[in-house]
Each structure stands twice: as C-alpha cells, then as structure tokens.
C-alpha cells in the first residue's frame, strides 16, 4: 500500500461508544430514580439503544434535527414503557449529552496502535458526531495527540457516506484519495462511502457481522492494524 494518510472514524471504532453510553446512562438512571418507573436498567438501556439507532438513521437522512434527536430518543424510550413524561425525558437527554462525552473508554490497544501509526502516517478523524461533543471526547480520552485534522459532519455540511465529506476531508488534509485509507465500524457509512470516493477502506468489525459486499480490508481488533500497516 502506498498510504500516507489514514482516516479514522471515532465512535464505535476508537471511542467505545456503547461502554461509555452504558456507564453514563446507568449513573443517570440511578440518580433520577429510574427504577421508580422502568423495571430495570438493562430493560431501559436495551430499548434506548434500539430507539437511538433508528433515530440516528433519520438524522443522517436529514429527516430530524440534532435537537429533536437528543430529546426524542428518551421520549420514545420512555413511551415504550408507557411512561409519558417529556420533562424527565428532557432531563435524561440533557444530562446524557452533558456527561457522556467525558467518558474515556477506548477499544483495546487503541493508544498503542495509534502511536505506532502516528510515527509512520498522517492520521485524521472523519466523524458524523457533533462538533462540540466530539471535541470533548477526543480531549477526555487523550486522542488529540495523534490527529492532524478532525473532520466532523457539522463542519463538512454533510454526513458520511456522502462523497462531499470525503472530498472535504481530503482537501483539508492535503491528501490524495489514492494515498488514503478509511477505517471504520459502519460498513456502508465508513467503508462503502470511502470506496465510492476512491479511498480504500478497512472495515473494523469486532462483532464479525456478515456483509453482502467486500471492501479492501477487514479487522476484528485494532491491534491487527499493526500487521496491516
Ligand atoms: Mg462509527
């Protein structure tokens, strides 16, 4: 590979989104006495994950706004337990957005792999997350030291897999598509998106999900990147 620039996705690729979200939500659930209205934290959490994924799909397709995503995901989670309490949903939503990004669980070997790669390549982030939220996450988990450019969908004006965000990322990094590679956990959004823009891709697939297409490379653990590069 004649690679000079490596673009990483952030959530679910480096920053362990699910672990961080679960820890944050369990603190809020305890503090706001969640067990008074929802049978158990795991019931609440599993429903939230489903609702959130569905609403993120709508946000990516510009069907709902950022503000709506942030409150609706808790409203809908509560409603599935027959709890109709917009004020409480708002409180959960606000606390979650305020605290979540300060969590710092990363996938195993993240720092080791990034410091190795940084000594050989220029590293950048391309994320569909929100500007201020992603900045806090990078800071809290000590990731800024590795990356030259952090490209958010808010800055680019479109979300992955839109080709425009990849073109924007190449432009601000001074990178050519042929010398770049994208690493991410979302097969369509990160990998197929990058390859449609002429950037090869590594599918980070820790759960070994089966896809009906192939991209250039696939790893189940970040440390496999040490062999690939
Ligand atoms: Mg991701």
Present the secondary structure layout.
Layout: E1 5-8, H1 17-31, H2 41-60, H3 66-79, H4 86-99, H5 110-118, E2 122-127, H6 131-140, E3 149-152, H7 153-156, H8 163-173, E4 180-184, H9 187-196, E5 200-204, E6 217-219, H10 225-228
Magnesium ion binds next to loops.
How does this structure look, described?
This protein is α/β, with parallel strands linked by helices and 229 residues long. It has two domains: 5-16 and 106-228, HAD superfamily/HAD-like (Rossmann fold); 17-102, DNA polymerase, domain 1. The protein is built from ten helices and six strands, in the order E-H-H-H-H-H-E-H-E-H-H-E-H-E-E-H. It has helices at 17-31, 41-60, 66-79, 86-99, 110-118, 131-140, 153-156, 163-173, 187-196, 225-228, and strands spanning 5-8, 122-127, 149-152, 180-184, 200-204, 217-219. Strands 3-2-1-4-5-6 form a six-stranded parallel sheet, sandwiched between helices. Strand 4 (180-184), helix 9 and strand 5 (200-204) form a beta-alpha-beta unit. Helix 1 crosses helix 4 (86-99) and helix 2 packs antiparallel against helix 3 (66-79). The N and C termini lie close together (8 Å). The model has no long low-confidence stretch (mean pLDDT 95). Magnesium ion binds at residues 9, 11-13, 184-186.
């Amino acid at each position: 590979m004649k690679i000079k620039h490596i673009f990483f996705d952030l959530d679910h690729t480096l920053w362990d989104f699910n672990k961080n979200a679960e820890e944050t939500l369990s603190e809020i659930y305890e503090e706001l006495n969640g067990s008074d209205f929802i049978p158990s934290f795991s019931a609440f959490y599993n429903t939230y994950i489903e609702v959130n994924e569905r609403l993120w799909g709508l946000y990516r397709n510009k069907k709902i706004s950022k503000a709506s995503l942030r409150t609706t995901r808790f409203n809908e989670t509560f409603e599935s337990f027959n709890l109709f309490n917009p004020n409480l949903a708002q409180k959960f939503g606000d606390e979650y957005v305020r605290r979540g990004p300060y969590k710092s669980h990363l996938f195993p070997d993240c720092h080791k792999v990034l410091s190795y790669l940084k000594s050989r390549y220029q590293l950048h982030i391309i994320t569909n997350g929100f500007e201020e939220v992603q900045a806090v996450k990078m800071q809290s988990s000590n990731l800024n030291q590795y990356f030259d450019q952090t490209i958010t969908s808010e800055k680019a004006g479109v979300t992955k897999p839109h080709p425009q965000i990849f073109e924007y990322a190449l432009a601000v990094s001074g990178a050519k598509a042929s010398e770049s590679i994208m690493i991410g956990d979302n097969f369509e959004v990160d990998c197929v998106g990058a390859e449609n823009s002429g950037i090869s891709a590594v599918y980070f697939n820790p759960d070994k999900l089966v896809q009906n297409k192939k991209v250039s490379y696939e790893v189940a653990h970040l440390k496999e990147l040490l062999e690939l590069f």
